[in-house]
Amino acid sequence: MTRVFISYLARSIVATMLVAFAATTIAQEAAPADAVQPEQSRSLDQEVQALKNEVLDLNRDLFLLEEDLLFPANSQVALFVSMDVGEYFALDSVTVKIDGKEVSNYLYTEREVDALIRGGVHRLHMANLKTGEHQLVAVFIGKGPHGRDYRRGATMTIDKGIGAKYVELKISDRVRQQQPEFIIRDWE
Amino acid sequence: MQRFRLFAGLIICALASISLASSDLAGQPAPDFALKSANGENLRLSEYRGDVVMINFWATWCGPCRQEMPLLDELYSRYQRVGFNLLGVNIDDDTGRAMKMIDELGVTFPVLFDSRKEVSKLYEVEAMPVTVLVDREGKVRHVHHGYKPGYEDKYLDQIRSLLRE
Q1: What are the domain boundaries of chain B?
Q2: Which ipTM was obtained for this model?
Q3: Domain covering B28-164 assigned CATH 3.40.1550.10 in the classification
Q4: pTM over the 0.80 mark
Q5: What is the pLDDT of residues B46-55, one digit of tens each?
Q6: Chain B within 8 Å of A149 (Cβ-Cβ)?
């Protein structure tokens, strides 16, 4: 609804500016040709340039406004998945529950796992949460050491304050135990 | 009275065309999905961007699917090397039965399992089988509901023309 309203607002403003621009151009064109001085045409060029700049600025502002309205920074929570080495764990999927409600169930393809191992970070989910405490449960499914089916959960209580929150779900290897390790931590 | 009937008829036609248009995916970007395949690999549609992709929704209880699948497999083996891919999406709750049918029919194209029915909802699958053709740009170009002998010729023409683009 907000998106529709914003795009309607944007269209109306851009349309109004275009009409104003067209009116100016027509008014200029309607004047006798011999009356147009070089200085006047230069100032017209400047006006057109200024108008273009204004349209660009408006576009940028609307884009930012749309983002702010859809995912207000105050309630924004973003979850990222990262992987370190991945020798003891072949990732298949990650399921995330926030306050008991499943918000994401993502299947990773071979290419995506490869990208994670090479240092890529995947934005798994973006949500809006109220301030206060929230229970986050992430279940990692894949193949563990010796190709065995592996399913491990990790839990964290998110303390959502004012401002955006970034949470990392990190899969790393515990070389000494020869087991994978799953950590959920805040990204400050 | 006659005028009223004509008016009512026009309204019904308009409503019917609106509902048909809204259920038609053709021309829209193909909704992306990732599913587990019969060989255990996860496959994601967007990773096939650049290829022509046919998505065939099927179920073990669907007779026409049994008829159609070997014909689709022929198309797959013929055009796979020139950038054509086929993803068979099974919607059964029991994947074991689907695996058995794949073995029986001997199909070679990747079969994915949509047990949660999320992908069939995305593609508004209301009949069986449903065959969707996606172009190299990732846009849905053709949607076929059901199967009758002779449809494979239509598929062939459409695949060839999409491959030429």
Answers
A1: 28-164
A2: 0.71
A3: no
A4: no
A5: 999 999 999 9
A6: no
